[in-house]
C-alpha cells in the first residue's frame, strides 16, 4: 500500500537492492528467500501489466494466487491425501462435505481482522454469498443446522482467501485444507491431545518428521492480559498483536500495542515479560507459582488445562513434539481453549519453515448458529497441504513417476489392423484390464513400442495378419523385451494371470 | 419472471391447481413430478421469506441450489467416484485439477445462451473472476497455457450454474462433474467412440444399465439448416431451439423459431421433417440417399462420420446402446463434431429419467486460448453424478451402512482406567490399527459395548484392574459376543492376525 505511488519498475529496483544487501551481509537463508520471493512477485506483476497493455490482448493465466495441478502433481497430491485420510480413519472419523460458498452472514464476524480477506460473490440477484474461508465455520453451521450433537469428522476441501500470498513458499489464494474435528461433550483434554497425535502421525507418515507442535491456551492469554491490566474490551486487539510475534520482533509488536492500539507502555512491557517465554510442563509449573499471573482465575484454569494436556501427551507418545509457546495467539476469533500450530523445524532452506497445521478448541461457535444458542463443544486441527505438497514436489522432482496406470498396450505390426486392435481392447476392458492403443488407424510399430517404454506400460500385445490367421498373438514384456506367442483365445486368461502375479 | 407481480401465496395456489388437474387427468408421472417439484420450490421460497421477515433473524441454511453431504451420502458418493475413476484409468487417463474460478474473460463467449448462468465474483479490486461453469473450458485453457498437444485426462470437480434447479430431481447450482477427454490429433472417430464406451462402462458398473446414448453431429445439424435454407447467421439460434425438443413439443419449438427468431414458417416445417427422426445406422443410410439433405457438403461429411461411428461402436460392443437422434443439439457453442447425451430409460418413476451424461467434439476451443490460434482437436464426455447419486441414495436408503472404519474399541470395565486405555490406543495407532475409545474419563461398560454394536466395530478390548495386574486383557468379538483372554504383551500381534484374517 505504501508503494502505491511508485512504479513497478522502481519497486523492482529497490527490492533488488534489498536482496543484494542481504546476500552481501550473508543474512539468514529464510530472510533472503523471503525477499527474493517478493522480488519475483513484483517481476511477475510487471510481466502481467505489460501483457495487459499490449493491445488489450487477453492474458492467458490462472487467477492471481491460484494454480493448476498437472498429472504429476496430482499423483503426489493423491498419495499425500491417501496418507492423511488413512490417519483420520485410524482415529474413527467419518467425512462430510459442504458447499464452496455460504450465505455471507454465515461467515460474518467469525474471523476477526482477517474478515477482509473473504471473497464475496457478485450480487446477481438473490442471496448474498461468500466463498468459504475455512472448513471450520461451515462445519459448525452444519452441526447447528442438522442438530448434530456429537461427531468425529474429517473433511478435505479448498478454501479461499484474498491474501497477497508468496506462492513460491506454497501459499495461495485457493488452497486445500485437511481438517479433523471432534465435536460433542467429552472429559477435559482427551480429544484435544488426540488432535496433536493426529498431526504428528500425519507429518511422520509424510516423512516430515522434524516438526514441533506449538501450543497455548486462550484462557492463559486472556488471564495474562487481565493480570497485566489490559481492559477486557482490548483483549482481542492485543491478542492479534501478540499473534504477529512469529513474524515480527517484540519491539515492533510492542509499538503496535502502544502506538496503534493505545495500550499503556508499562502494561505492554509486562506482557512482554510473559509472551516471549516457551517451554514444556516445567514452564506450566513455573507459571502456576507466579502469583501475579495466578491472580487471574482464567490463567489458572488455562495452566491447569495444559498440565493435564502434557500428562496425556506423554501417554499418547507425543510429548516430545510439543512446545508451550506463550506467544502463540492465532488470529481467529472463535477459539476458546487450547490452540495449536505445527511448524517444520528442519533446516533445509529449500523446504522452508513455517506453519503447516493449526487449530484449537472452539466451544461457542456452533451456538452462534443455533436458534436456541445450544453449544456443541469442538476441537480440531487443519493440515495445510499446499506447503507439504511444495516440499514433496521438490523432493520428487527428479524421480520417474507414472501418471497413468495402463497395464496393456495393443499394438499392430502392420497396416489395416485397426478393427482387430479395437476388438482386443474391448475384450480386455470387459474383464477390467487397463488397456490402451494408438488412435492412429495405421501406426508404426516402433512408435507404438516407444509409447509403451516411455509410459512404463508393462505389457504389449502385438498383432500381425499371419499370426491372427494362425490364431495367435505376441505378448511382449516391455522392460525385458521378451516376447512369447499366446493363443488368441487364451489371451484374456494369460493376461489376468500375469497381471495378478505382478508387483505393480 | 411472468409471475413477478403475484404473491408467493397466489403462485402456490395456482401451482397446486396445476398439480391437482394433472393428477385428475392421470397425466404422465414425469409431468406430475415436474410440477410437484415446482410447487415444493415455491413453498420453500415462501418458508424462506417468512423466516427472513421474522425480525430479520439470520436463516440457517445453505445457499440456494446447494447442499451438504452427510457421512452416509459421502460413502455412497465415494463408492461411485471409485467406480468412475477406475473406468477412466482403465482407458489410460491421467488426472489434473484447475482452480474453481477463472478470469471472467476465459469463460466469456463459450456457452451461448447459457452464459447468463455464470456466477461472477464481486469486484473487490484486482481481477474480474467467475466460478467455472464446466470443466471443459478450463481444460482447454490449461492445454493452451501449458502447450499440451496431446493428453487423455479425467477430472472430477464441482461446477457452478445460476440455474433454477429442481433439487428434488437431482439438479443443483453447485454440482459435481466427472469428465473424460481425449485431446490431440487422431484418426477419425476412434476416440469419439471410446467416449461412448466409457459412458456405458460407467453406467453399467453403477448398475444403471437401462440407458441409451443419443448421438448427433453438428455438421449434420448445420447441413440440415443449410439444406432447409436457414441463413448461416441464424444456425446457432435455430440450433438452440432444436435443443429444446427434449422438453417441449415440436409445435412450441416451431413457434419459437418462427415467432421469436423470425424464421420463415416453410423453412421451419422443412426442419421439422428431419429433427423428429431417430434411428441407428439405417437412418444414416436413408439420409445419405436423401438428395435434398445431401445437397449440403456439411451434412454428407457428418453422415459419413456417423457411418464410421456405428461401425466402430459395433467393434467396441456399444452399438446397441446408441441412438442417432436428429433432435439432439446441445446448447453449448463450442461443439464442432459428434455430440452425445446419455439418458436413463428405465421406467421407475422414483428414479426419474433424463440426461445423465453429455459431451461431444470441440476441435476449435483450445485455439481460442492459444496466442497463435493453434488448434488441439478434443472430444470428451461429462458424467453428471448428482442425478446418479440421487438414484443410488434412494436405492440404499434402507441399507445399514458403516460410515467409519474403526476396527478396535478400547473399553474399560471399571473406573480410573483412562490412562491405560490411552496407552493401548497409542500402541494400536502405532501399528496402523483403526482404534477408538470413549472420550469420557469413566464411561460405563454397557455404553461402551453399545457403541461397538451400533457402529459395527468388530473387536473390543476390555480392560480391568485385576486383569491388568495379571498381565492380560479381554478381547471381545462384538457380533458373536465371544470373549477370550489375551496376554497384554501379545495384544498387538493377536489383533494384527485377527484383522488380516477378517473379511471387512
Automatic annotation (TrEMBL), chains A, B:
Keywords, in A-Z order: Aminoacyl-tRNA synthetase, ATP-binding, Cytoplasm, Ligase, Nucleotide-binding, Protein biosynthesis
Binding annotation for L-histidine: 134-136, 161, 177, 181, 330, 334-335
UniProt key word Calcium: no
Gene3D superfamilies listed in its UniProt record: Anticodon-binding domain, Bira Bifunctional Protein, Domain 2
A Gene Ontology biological process term: histidyl-tRNA aminoacylation
Domain (Aminoacyl-transfer RNA synthetases class-II family profile): residue spans on this chain: 88-392
Top enzyme class: ligase
Domain of life of the organism encoding this protein: Eukaryota
GO (cellular component) term, any one: mitochondrion
Record SMART domains: WHEP-TRS (SM00991)
Record keyword Phosphoprotein present: no
E.C. number(s) listed in UniProt: 6.1.1.21
Domain WHEP-TRS: 4-60
Catalytic activity: tRNA(His) + L-histidine + ATP = L-histidyl-tRNA(His) + AMP + diphosphate + H(+)
Sample GO molecular function, one term: histidine-tRNA ligase activity
Family: Belongs to the class-II aminoacyl-tRNA synthetase family.
Entry protein name: histidine--tRNA ligase
